[in-house]
Each structure stands twice: as structure tokens, then as C-alpha cells.
Design goal:
2 helices; HSP40/DNAj peptide-binding domain; 11% helix; mitochondrion inner membrane; elongated; three-stranded mixed beta sheet; alpha+beta
Amino acid sequence: MFAAVRSVSFRPLARTLVTTPRVFAGHKPPSLIGEGAKPGEVPTDENHSTGLERLELLGKMEGIDVFDMNPLEMTRMGTLQDPIKIYSLAPERHVGCTGYPADSHDTIWLTVNQHLKNHRCPECGCVYTLDFHGDPHAHEHH
């Protein structure tokens, strides 16, 4: 019949404040989402482009080829002792071998990756290796 009475002490709640300095000084990377055109205006490429298209456009405005689509400079034949290094930010890259000297055979596509140290063209024997400069812990999920 008699309920146990708990003694409840009322105390004001303490609020913990955590402040972190906001870093607004300096330059932040440009947004990959365009701001859009103002009402009544025709949008330009800079206004409405997004994602990779905007990245490429911003790179061209800065004079940078963000996709680096230039062909490799083949000044020699790659050997096992001195392979042709393929610069890559990804753990895998596709290379089209046309032989040495250039255009000695039809294009043979090779997948150069980190699983093998060297990759050899089956037509001419030129050897390629991946020169990986990316983040090894970025799991490249697509």
C-alpha cells in the first residue's frame, strides 16, 4: 500500500557548449553545382553545368586538362627491367598499345592494375607498369 518514495533532487540542467572555429579564411574549392541563371536570363555553361561537366569546365577555365587525355610519349620500348610507367590516381587504368615505334600494330587494350607488377602487350612485347598516386584506402566504390 505504501509506495516507496524516491528522493528526487532537482538541479538545473547543465548545457555543454562545444565551439569550433569556422574556417572561412582562404579559398575553398569551387562547387560542382552551378548557381543557376537569374530569372529571365538564358543560362550559360558556367551557370547550369554540374558534376564532372562542371569540373571539366572549371579546369579548362584554369588551363588544366582534368582528364589528361593526351597520348603517352612513347620514346622507347618498355622492358621488364625498365617498363613504361602509367601515371594513375585510380588502382586500375586502361592502356591502348599501338606498338613501338607508334602505329606498328593495331591498338591492343590492356588493363594495367596493381595486381601484377608488369603488364606486357601480347603483340609487340612492350611492358607497362602502374605508377599509382591515389589514395590506397579509397575503396573506389561506384
